[in-house]
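ingest -> validate -> predict -> emit
validate: passed (alphabet ok, no gaps, 359 aa)
predict: started
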Amino acid sequence: MSRHEQARDTRAPGTRIPAARAAEDRTADAVQDEAADDTVQDRTVEERAAAERERVAAFRTRIGAPALIDIHTHFMPERLLAKVWAYFDAAGPLVGRAWPITYRTDEQRRLAVLRGFGVRAFTSMLYPHKPGMARSLNDWAADFAARTPDCLHTATFYAEPCAPDDVRRALDQGARVFKCHLQVGGFDPRDPALEEVWGLLADAGVPVVTHCGSGPVPGAFTGPGPIGAVLERHPRLRLVVAHLGMPEYTEFLALAARHPEVMLDTTMAFTGFAEDAAPFPRDALPRLADLGERVLLGTDFPNIPYPYADALESLEERTGLGPGWLRAVCHDNAARVCGLDRPGDGGRPRPDGSASWAS
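emit:
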């Protein structure tokens, strides 16, 4: 008998507790144990974040950045996020290795952690893994952005017949950045269902953060070929290649060199975790430096297996590209791309593709 059963049981010794009652008590035990685990986890996250704040503040001072703008962070409905975390916990086939979630805590605490690091603006990257999910995810994201002023309103889509309508609806709701995950979605970016979508996004001038590289494991339509074909048809598309295109770094750097609207985000690149599996080629650093105005800070917060400060310090130490380049990457470039460096009407991008929203 559990401690909860002993505390509540007033029957004479030897009297059996009915099965339903016993089941209820076992459920109460599980709920209390889970709540205790959550409390410990929350405290651990908060203690870790407090210890990191000085490191992040020192980094910002070294590069002369007033704040950080993180273009690649994940906020999503709690039930969906729990499933994502469970997938990482199980080292699923798209992960392939142990991947502990460093910032496993509730939404408000996660927001407090980012703000404590001096992150001025961030995204709520969501992605459907099957048809019929995108619209409900976009509705959630619209609500989240409305109640979270420092979140850049994020939306997504899937290769399905309703995709153009979903994207139009999200743009009408005020979406300022889109997420496309070719690896998780398992769809071809050249799918005819997406032809109108790419055109809409190119016309709107909103950045589309796209996981199109083949890390951590290749997908059926990852790599520079499929998304490169899309760019040939839609050269004005403001594609942001997530993870610097890991592990096809040089191929995606070449893609960016050919297409002036293509950008890259730094998510996980140069960290010890990524370098173990897919090291960035040091002879490609000059090319990365040359693209400095089109490189944006991304981290994958909260779904990272190391401290947030590690991502920043690794970028600093392993690139050696100096404070000016880092300041542009970690703040100035995203401020320009997302329209946070100019006054505006707070709404949609202008038809010419320039941003019109205010910070």
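The beta strands are 68-70, 119-123, 151-152, 154-156, 177-181, 208-211, 239-241, 263-265, 295-296.
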